[in-house]
## 1
Amino acid sequence: MHSYHPIIASHANVVLGSYDQNPECVEVAKALKAHVFSPPQRLWKFLTTSSETWTATQAFLDTSIRGRSLFCLATPPLATLPGGSYWAELQYLMRKEVTPDQFQLIRFPLRIERQSSSKFLSLFGWDNRRLARKQYQRLTQEIDQNLRFLFKDYQGEIVLNRSIPFPPAFDYAFVTIATHVLRLRIAQGRGELSVCVAPLHAPDDWQELSMVLMAMNTPEGIGQRPRYAFWHDVVQLLQTLMNVANEAMSEKRWIVITERLNRLYALPFKEQWETLSKI
């Protein structure tokens, strides 16, 4: 997706990213022999019930800071959703005066070997798969309630998730919807809702919804990026996209959109973070 400096595999590395946009974060960390914060669903539910989710996240970050880790970013800072978990993690690291040279954007694609989660399940003795299925069913119900227009007006149908580890980490659920002109991947977890889109001719070229809309309307640089946090926000943005989807998702137009985004994502970390802080 993006081109960055190569990273030398090391146990001193830590992988961070927006799990909703890059659900392969755990596999990326394994490929880099790096650490990653990815609690299984049952443990995350316990932390949520105990109101200790940020305490656990902060402890992981503090340990990484003390170890002078290289923070390998699976998601470019500019692609993060303001106010989200990944945003909060980056903000915390900057407040702790982690220097820009301790951040490195990951080069994709990586050669990733998917591993069974059975060892992890056995380690904790919990059936995370059962809990993950419940999260998935809950998300499909919310989609049916809120995004019915996709199925009625655009021949939408729920299809098999591609390249999504199962069970996902934290309390995430992913649902992929295929319409007559594009694919949508809706993620819900850590109290957040996010949407990625991909054209039918490049079904694995996922891009975050608000960044796509921004790139469509901004020939160069950073423009006004629409915000969303709730279903009614998502409905409005998707209706905007679907009205122009035939043109926006064409092969020629999609190349232009992704090239704009890749130029932004290729900026040095410091420049991305300073730009993000001003938006």
## 2
Amino acid sequence: MKHLPVIDLSGQPADIGYAHGKALCVQLKENYSIYLNMISTNTGQSEQAIVDLARRFLPEVEKAAPELLAEMEGIAQGAGVSLETILVLNCRSELAFPDQLATQCTVVGLTGNRTVSGKGVIAQNWDWLPAVKANVAFLRIEPAAGPRALILERGGSGG
């Protein structure tokens, strides 16, 4: 197996997103093609219909997680793609399997009194498609505010 790239990202959410989009532009576009095909195959919808559905998530993302929206906008700008492209990548499970979301990824958390370091830890597994294996990287994130993170991520997915 080849070594996965490690990309250092820091700053405000838009800065983190921009650097992510710029560094993983090629992988992001390949992932879009892979996931668009998966969504279309599962739903029978056209690309335009999928993009229109993804756009409907925008008000909720803006309301619930404006920092993630800023990161996604940065990814789009860095990669030279539309925000809708990034929304499709980030809403792929909701778009492809709306009735199976409970069977997707698992999250685990430990409080500081349960870890050797005394610091809390949160982790999530990722149920991925083998086709995106070549389009992932480790993102080492040092945000201006909030905890640091090391994420194994697909190009184009916000964190």
## 3
Amino acid sequence: MRLRGFQTFGPTLFDLLMEESLIQVYIPEQNKVFKTDLGEGTKKQGSGLTPLSLMKGILQVGIDQSEELSLSQNPQGDIVLNHLKEGRLVKKTEIDSRSLFIKRETLLGAGEQAYLITTYAEYKRVGGQWWPFRIELHQPMGGQFMSFEFQSVRTNGPIESDIFKLDVPPGVITVYQ
């Protein structure tokens, strides 16, 4: 899987690359590549990747050193992962307590006002993995709303090998977690 995040008409925020159990995230602003291999612990235990181990691995990768994480629970019983930076809540990730699927991510600005809410729904199993077939983006301040509905997801199809080459500029620090 390859996922790149960009600011609108701006620079790359991150470049996430996941090949089998290895996750790499290049964050240009920090001039670092964060790497973690989820397979290391599971090989020793003799079990495969679970949604929880995958979620834990992705959470370990690329989290700003000044960011603190705490867990809570919402009234519906979902797990809420609170991201704090300098003591201020900047993001909330709501995770279904039964399936461990991410249901919603909320980015918070000044005064803990939500400026972007991303909702994931209609998960379906494809090629042994669960995928959200509906993703909704809502910007409460501007009143904008976008909905993406996927008809199908193809996994493990042929891909050119150079797609899994993470190109970073010279001098970037690699952090193994």
